Amino acid sequence: MDKLEFHRMIKDAEQKLRDVGIDAAATEVEIILEYLLEVERIAIYLHGWKLIDTAALKKFHKIIEKRATRYPLQYILGEAYFYGRRFLVNPDVMIPTPETETLCELAINYINNEKIEAPQILDLCTGSGVIAVTIASELPDTWVTASDISQAALAMARKNAAMNGVESIIRFIKSDMFDSIRSDERFDLILSNPPYIRDDEYDTLQPEVLVDPKIALVAGVEGLDLIKKLLDTAPAYLNPNGRIMFEMSYDQTDKIIRLTENDKRYRSFTIIKDLNDIDRVVILSV
Q: What is the DSSP annotation of 173-210?
């Protein structure tokens, strides 16, 4: 393949993805070529046409065809990047999003700023394990407990912990929220990216999101079923001055305020916006 043909192939692939409503088509084509050619982005344009062989070309067209059905690229490639690290993903786990990086950043800063030694951290609804693995990687003197109701999700989370070299400081537990967490355990910080989408909102989601496991997305009529469990139970599992941090939907701020404003166990309530200036992370202190 010569240089002109290679760049025409890229443009044709980008257009095919745009035609089905994928706005980030150019970026996704670059990600696919980086994956197939095992090079960084700049190498694609410097000499990609010299690197792509018949087998890679065939895979490229196959991936584009699959992506054009709006099947998530991360599931096609079997990987996603989060907080600068590579994670394995499949349809048993939700694809990590940049909003969750905000939650991790807040958690890391809290532990560092408070100078908590050997912190005990609980990650509920761990899914692929991106929160647990990120926290363990960034705070190597911590001990993380990661739980999920899905055995398949836990299997993927364990793989990600091992791939990132932190399997020795993460304990994985199959649990529906706190059900299998011992009643005498205490944590300095409880984190969660729980399901928070309303039942009636589910069918309006983007095609890519609908491929995520439904159990990781939907949480009842108000989208608050698991958040209510978290708010009701978490204080009993926190050390003195402990904190809870969790993600929520853009329209749940007022409802969560009402759920907590008369709960004397909570000393403070803070909402943090995400990179799109949308209310995203709730922080509660006990």
A: EE-STTTTS-TT--EEEEEE----B-GGGGGGS-HHHH
Total domain count, the chain: 2
108 and 61 both lie in a single domain: no
Q: Which domain holds residue 129?
A: 91-285
Are 171 and 272 part of one and the same domain? yes
Grouping H, G, I as helix, E, B as strand and the rest as coil, residue 68 is coil
Show the tokens assigned to 285: 């202190």
Dist. CA 223–CA 226, nearest whole Å: 8
202: buried, middle or exposed (CB in 10 Å: 19+, 13-18, 0-12)? middle
Residue 24 shares a structural domain with residue 109: no
* Alpha carbon 26 to chain centroid, angstroms: 23
Binning the chain into helix, strand and coil, the percentages to the nearest 5 are: 45, 20, 35
The token pair at 78 is 């079997």
**Claim to verify: residue 208 and residue 158 sit in the same structural domain:** yes
Residue 246 in this model has a pLDDT that exceeds 90: yes
Strand 85-88 relative to strand 120-124, pairing: unpaired
Confidence category of residue 117, pLDDT binned at 50, 70, 90 = very high
- Shared domain for 149 and 257, answered yes or no, is yes
